[in-house]
């Protein structure tokens, strides 16, 4: 186990614990589950990117910036949109599709590691749709 793997795992665990603590405090919020899933996708993506960075840099050199940067960006943008409260659904959906496409494109190398965060973002998009439709039906 390398130092990068340890740092990535610790970073992912810290963000995941913070996400679960947020859910415990804001359980009644209509989009709490969606935010939890977005935070978990961010945690999984950053942990994976940090853990894979030494191998990716050794294999791809300067290209490691975009090989790992695209999935991290796809996980960060929905989280920023959620915190800003604007365009959360479309940003989460596009982030999930970009990360899924990127994971499949790089599937034989490092791409398989980014499929779990893509599925988490996809679940957040689905939960967001059902939360919005429940809020509209309740009004």
Question: What features would you describe in this structure?
Answer:
The protein has 5 helices and no strands. With 139 residues, it is mainly α. The mean pLDDT is 83.
**Which percent bin holds the helix content?**
over 70%
Give the CA-CA distance, first to last residue: 53 Å
Q: What is the CA-atom radius of gyration, in angstroms?
A: 16 Å
Shape: globular
Give the H and E element order. HHHHH
Let me know the number of strands: 0
Q: Treating each run of at least 4 consecutive H or I residues as one helix, how many helices?
A: 5
What is the element layout, followed by pairings?
Layout: H1 3-25, H2 32-60, H3 64-84, H4 88-105, H5 115-138
Helix pairs in contact: 1-2, 2-3, 2-5, 3-4, 4-5
Give a summary of the structure in a few sentences.
With 139 residues, the protein is mostly helical. The chain contains five helices and no strands.
List keywords for this structure.
139 residues, mainly alpha, 0% strand
